[in-house]
Specification:
This protein is mostly beta strands. Helices cover about 0% and strands about 50% of the residues. The N and C termini lie far apart (about 85 Å).
Length: about 140
């Protein structure tokens, strides 16, 4: 018997469910109901059209079609769809805000991580640094 990968499974918070507290786990999370607290999963988070989240979110990828109030950390990609609403700061490697989406907060682009070393990858090109000339006394 072959063991299934944990990130292949998805937990569902359905439309009529309300959760208050902290959620952690190695899988994906699909939210159509209400969550208040904090969520940290190693998979993806999908907030559907009927989903309302008042929590800080951390996941590999985060897709918002509903409403999120809180700070977001997406280790890969954050997508806010036209019906989506985000009030809070976000950091991600890639941020895609579709036309019609609502975003109020600050965004920070994280550096990509080199798969081989696990360290942040260097930027494609480093802009030249201005040289500082010290003034010589006359």
């Amino acid at each position: 018997m072959q063991k299934a990968k944990a990130a292949d499974s998805t937990s569902l918070v359905s439309k009529n469910v309300k959760i208050e507290g902290e959620i952690e786990g190695p899988e994906n999370l699909h939210v159509e109901g209400y969550i208040k607290g904090a969520v940290a999963v190693s998979g993806d988070i999908f907030v559907g059209n009927t989903g309302v989240v008042e929590a800080d979110l951390e996941a590999k990828n985060i897709v918002i079609q509903g409403e999120v109030t809180g700070n977001i950390t997406a280790h890969k990609q954050l997508e806010i769809h036209p019906s989506g609403r985000l009030i809070g700061d976000c950091s991600a490697t890639s941020i895609d805000i579709k036309e019609g989406a609502m975003f109020e907060g600050r965004s920070v682009m994280m550096k990509t991580v080199d798969a081989a070393s696990g360290r942040p990858a260097p930027p494609a090109s480093t802009p030249p640094q201005p040289s500082q000339k010290q003034r010589q006394p006359e």
